[in-house]
Amino acid sequence: MLTAIVLIDTEADQIPEVATQVTNLRGVSEVYSVTGKADLVAMVRVREHETLADVIADGISKVPGVVRTETLIAFRAYSNVDLEQAFALGLDD
Fold first, then answer.
1. Which of 4, 27, 48, 66 is the most exposed place for a label (fewest CB within 10 A)?
2. Residue 43 in contact with residue 3, Cβ under 8 Å?
3. Going edge to edge, which strands form the sheet with 2-10?
4. pLDDT, tens digit (0-9, with 9 covering 90-100), for 33-81
5. 89 pLDDT band (50/70/90 cuts)?
C-alpha cells in the first residue's frame, strides 16, 4: 500500500465544498480541515504508484476551488495501529 499526504490550498470560501468532493474520490481515505500552511490535508492510499497520478493530478487538482497541491509520499509508516490490516478489509487482490 502506497500512502501520499496531499496538502491542498483552496479558494477561501470553498473549503467545505472542496473537502466533500475530494473525500468522494477513489483512493482518498480521509480529508482533514487543518490550520497551518494548507487548508486541507488528504490521505491517499493506493496499491500502485501509477494510480497516484490518477487520484492527485487527474482528481484532486481538478476539483473546482483547488488552487494548488503539494504531495508528500510516505516511505515508511511508524504507528501503533495496523493501518494495512484496517485498509485491506474487503479488498480483492
1. 48
2. yes
3. 28-33, 40-46, 2-10, 66-73
4. 999 999 999 999 999 999 999 999 999 999 999 999 999 999 988 876 6
5. low
pTM over 0.70: yes
Nearest to 69 by CA among 77, 57, 86, 81: 57
Alpha-carbon torsion (31, 65, 25, 77), positive or negative:
negative
Distance between CA atoms of residues 17 and 65, nearest Å: 8
Cα distances (angstroms) measured from residue 36 to each of 7, 11, 27, 52, 82: 10, 15, 24, 24, 28
Question: Does residue 15 contact residue 40 with C-beta atoms inside 8 Å?
Answer: yes
